Amino acid sequence: xxxxxIAVDAMGGDVGVRVMIEGAALARRQHDxxxxxxxxDETAIKQALEAHPNLRAASxxxxxxxxxxxxxKPTQALRRARTTSxxxxxxxxxxxxxxxxxxxxxxxxxxxxxxxxxxTMPGIDRPALAALLPTLGDHDLVMLDLxxxxxxxxxxxxxxxxxxxAYARIVHGLAEPRVRLLNIGTEEIKGTDELRDAAAMLxxxxxxxxxxxxxxTEADKLSRGDVDVVVTDGFTGNIALKAMExxxxxxxxxxxxxxxxxxxxxxxxLISKPATELLKHHLDPNNHNGAVFLGLNxxxxxxxxxxxxLGVAHAVAVTARLxxxxxxxxxxxxxxQAGQEAMRGATTRVRTAPETPGAPA
Length: 361
Fold this sequence. Notes:
alpha/beta, 14% strand
């Protein structure tokens, strides 16, 4: 079955047209069935396509006169949705002229435009931003929410768990993903009311869920590889993500400084180069690029603004896989399977233990 074409916001990201077109061209070389709708300044896109005939033959250009600025407020961007490359790429998904959209632009604007144009799926109150993070295990960790919703209640967290597990089954081929809630400790009495309520609701749903709920996890265990999906609110998730990215850069910079400090260090670098190259590959965010807004009536993928062409190509490949594996239909099926079990108690507080203030671990 041929894939629907992918709408690419060619003007998004820190560099813009050049990197977005190079990334789409790289993805096209790796997967010759990909087809694209390139949205943005027509003159700039045509110029960039001159170096990529393979992409030019598989693409159509949709001219957009405006671009969403990186610091533009979502409310302002919404008013210009019909003239910006980001807005027109999302509109293409809504109209059916594209199967999915990819943008490296302003995250808040992308979220707002996507939610207004595509709406949330039945049974989902809020969409969530999910991404893949590197671990020591056999596959990356699916984590959500990473910034779309700063404040979430227990019902939101349960919905995130259902959507995240569906995503994990697609990208990793897992039959029963292991799901945990991010908390300040693993004990049942730890955390906020919302976290404890969500845990109680997930336990109560039991076998009705298409995943295994394993309770709480802490931030220092995210990279161990013993959990497949970690669920949290967008405020906490974004902080955790930035902390992990900062730690990865710290390790890389520390190694670089250590290996260049003396002649002996440089010699040691040559001996250990295969290992350091593997570490570099594992920590490179371009190899994990492509966060998806789960819970919408359509597929929208967010590429990191500073992503290289390789990173953009990875985001496009993630988008294509979500299309081929019918992400939205699988989330809908999981919601139907869970029924009302996981939502029972959403409006009435459920406690798994006496109410005790959680103390930091």
